[in-house]
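#onboarding

Welcome to the new folks! Below is a worked example of what a typical request in this channel looks like: someone posts a single protein sequence, and someone else replies with the predicted structure as tokens. Don't worry about understanding the tokens yet, we'll cover that in week two.

Example request:
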Amino acid sequence: MPDDDERYAALYHRHYSTVLRYAARRVGRDAAPDVAARTFTDAFRRLGQAPGERRAERVWLLGIARGQVSNEWRGLRRRQALADRLAVWRAPSADQGLDGEIVTRLAFHEALARLAGKDREALRLFYWEGLSVEEAATVAGCRAGTMATRLSRARARLREHLRTLGFQEGS
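Example response:
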């Protein structure tokens, strides 16, 4: 009888392409690898529930993938709803009397959302979590020099996005 690692590896090799194709048809080619990865992560956690027959394994994995596709769609809807709310708040009319601080914060969050994931994570770890460059590097799994460079570039990109939104440094 194979151990759990061998069983999981065999399951993965037999069915990964099927799960990936399933995900691609439902969430698109860009998001499909993430959905497949989450499917197999979940499958590893639930390996004791996996059926023993190959066809049944496939059905079991597609059931897990279906849940991950649903999660992906929910996330997309939440992000779109937020983007819609930001679009309304970003361009307030004069008679709304919105406080400038609210507009500035929303613009900041929109500029942050435009950054690549690694840039956002670097800024969040350093500023929001209050970590040092070395600590942030440990959390991100990179060297301190890499994190320092990433942080510097992320700051510059954030400033540029804020400029495109009409904000000047110091405003």
